[in-house]
C-alpha cells in the first residue's frame, strides 16, 4: 500500500528520519506504524545524522556490580552536553539501559509504562535543545564483578569484568580500568592476584 502524507509526517515526527525513509518504512511495514518505527530503529542509518560533531560518554553499573553499560551520545554542539537538563536525560537513559541488553530494547523501553525512551529523547531533541541527539554506541558487559573508569576530557572509558571476587578487587579493578584508559604501562603489582586466579573475564574499551 502507498502511505499518505499524514502517515509519513507522523512517522517523521517520531523518528526524525527523512521523508523518503519514512515512506519506504511504511510501505515495508504495510501501513503498520509500530513496525515502521521498528524498521527505522533497526536501520538507524536512515535517521538524520547531519552535523553530529560532539559526543558525551556515560557509564554506570548496577547495585550488584555484575552488569554495566557505557553509552556514547552524539550531539550537534558542546552546549547540549554541558546542559544540566541533558545530564538528567543521560541519567534516565543509563537507568533504562541497565534493564536491557541491546539498543533496540532500550529505545523501546517505556518510561513509567507510558512513553518509549526514543520518544522521550526525540522530545528533548525537538522541544528542549532544538538539536539532534543520537544514542550512537551502547556497550553492555556482564560478569560476577565489574568496574569501570571514564575520562570525560578524552571521552574514553574502560569496563573490566572479573570471574570472581578477590580481596581489594574494587581498587584493583579501578586501577586496571584507569590504566587502560590512560594507555600507561601496567604496574605488575596490580596483577599479581589476577594472574594467580586467572580472574579477568573480559575487557571493553570505548572512545569517540
Q: Helix share of residues?
A: 40-55%
Main structural class: alpha+beta
% residues in beta strands: 25-35%
Mean pLDDT: 81
Which parts are unreliable, with pLDDT below 50 for 5 consecutive residues or more? none
Q: Work out the radius of gyration.
A: 20 Å
Report the strand count. Answer: 8
Taking strands numbered 1, 2, ... along the chain, how are they ordered across the largest sheet? 1-2-5
Strand and helix order: HHHEEHHHEEHEEEHHE
Termini, distance in Å?
41 Å
Number of helices: 9
Q: How would you sum up the major sheet?
A: 3 strands, antiparallel
Can you tell me about this structure?
The protein is α+β, with helices and mostly antiparallel strands and 208 residues long. The chain is built from nine helices and eight strands. Helix 1 crosses helix 2 (19-28), helix 1 (5-15) crosses helix 3 (33-42) and helix 2 packs across helix 3 (33-42). The longest helix is centred in the middle third of the chain and has 14 residues, at 84-97. The strands form three sheets. The protein has a three-stranded antiparallel sheet with strand order 1-2-5. A three-stranded antiparallel sheet has the order 6-7-8. It has helices at 5-15, 19-28, 33-42, 78-81, 84-97, 103-108, 117-129, 169-182, 192-197; strands at 54-61, 67-75, 110-111, 115-116, 133-142, 145-151, 156-162, 200-207.
Amino acid at each position: 500500500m502507498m502511505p499518505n502524507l499524514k502517515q509519513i509526517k507522523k512517522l517523521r515526527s517520531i523518528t526524525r528520519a527523512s521523508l523518503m525513509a519514512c515512506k519506504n518504512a511504511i510501505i515495508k511495514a504495510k501501513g503498520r506504524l509500530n513496525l515502521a518505527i521498528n524498521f527505522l530503529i533497526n536501520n538507524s542509518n536512515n535517521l538524520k545524522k547531519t552535523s553530529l560533531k560532539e559526543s558525551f560518554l556515560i557509564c554506570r553499573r548496577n547495585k550488584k556490580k555484575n552488569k554495566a553499560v557505557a553509552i556514547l551520545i552524539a550531539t550537534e554542539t558542546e552546549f547540549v552536553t554541558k546542559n544540566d537538563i541533558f545530564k538528567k536525560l543521560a541519567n534516565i537513559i543509563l537507568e533504562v539501559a541497565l534493564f536491557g541488553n541491546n539498543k533496540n530494547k532500550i529505545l523501546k523501553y517505556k518510561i513509567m509504562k507510558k512513553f518509549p525512551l526514543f520518544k522521550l529523547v526525540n522530545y528533548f531533541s525537538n522541544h528542549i535543545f532544538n538539536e539532534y541527539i543520537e544514542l550512537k554506541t551502547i556497550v553492555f558487559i556482564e560478569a560476577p564483578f565489574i568496574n569501570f573508569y571514564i575520562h570525560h576530557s578524552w571521552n574514553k572509558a574502560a569496563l573490566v569484568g572479573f570471574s570472581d571476587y578477590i580481596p581489594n578487587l574494587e581498587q584493583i579493578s579501578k586501577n586496571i580500568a584507569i590504566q587502560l584508559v590512560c594507555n600507561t604501562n601496567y604496574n605488575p603489582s596490580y596483577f599479581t592476584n589476577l594472574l594467580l586466579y586467572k580472574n579477568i573475564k573480559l575487557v571493553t574499551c570505548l572512545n569517540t
